Give the backbone structure.
Amino acid sequence: MNEVLNIKKEEGIQNPSPMQKKKRGRKPKNEKTEYQINSEQTKFFVDLSKEKDSLEQIFNLLRKVNKKNYGREITFKDLAIFGIDKITEKDLDKIKDGSLSEMEKVEKALDEYNQKNGTKLSMGEFLVKKLSIN
C-alpha cells in the first residue's frame, strides 16, 4: 500500500482539492500575495462606518435621486451598478496607484527606472541617485 502511495507522489499526481491549504506562521517580507476572485460570490457588503465623508455623500445622492413623484425608490445598489458602468481604464489605474504603500511606490519607481534605462540598480543605489547623496 505504501508503495502505491509513493508511486503516486513521484508521478506528480496532486490532491484533487482545488483549494490549497495556507501555510501557517509568519510570511516572508518579500513574498507577493496573489489574490483570487471567487466568481461564485453573489453578495457584497460595504462598511462605511469609519468613512463619514463618503457616507454623507451617498446619503446626499440618495436624497437627490429620490426627490421625485413617480417610480420606485432608488437604492445604493442602483447607484453602485450605474457607477460601475462609468469606470474607465484611467480610473482603474488611479485606484491601483491609491492602493500602494509608500515603500511599494518607491519599488515601482525603481522598477520603472531600471526598465527605462536598462540598468539593474539596487534599492539603495537608486535612492542615493535620486536623492543626490554623495
